[in-house]
Design brief:
Elements (H helix, E strand, L loop, with lengths): L11 H20 L1 H4 L6 H8 L4 H13 L3 E6 L2 E6 L13
Antiparallel strand pairs: 1-2
Helix pairs in contact: 1-3, 1-4
Length: 97
């Protein structure tokens, strides 16, 4: 079971497929309206279900999926910070002239 507030997927490809299906359903519900009439609006709830509630929820999940295992939250004295995880690959510092 997922943790509350966790919208990440098991893998990036799975998350991108969910996004394509969700946004495609939402777009199809509007774009097919002239062709099929109000029946096309039945695609909207499907799109929202696939996106787990809203497009912003999907976006937050994308960021969580990308950062999984790379960031760790540390809280001390009521102040929290994001820090790289111990095994995370850190980008090389740019050389300054």
């Amino acid at each position: 079971m997922r943790e509350p507030g966790n919208f990440a997927s098991a893998s990036l490809p799975r998350h991108l497929v969910r996004g394509a299906a969700g946004f495609g359903s939402l777009a199809g519900s509007v774009l097919l309206l002239p062709v099929t009439g109000p029946v096309s609006l039945l695609l909207a709830p499907v799109g929202l279900l696939v996106l787990r509630g809203c497009p912003m929820c999907w976006t937050v999940g994308l960021v969580q999926t990308l950062s999984r295992g790379r960031l760790r939250r540390e809280c001390h004295d009521g102040r929290c910070e994001l820090r790289p995880a111990d095994g995370a690959v850190r980008p090389k510092a740019e050389a300054r002239p």
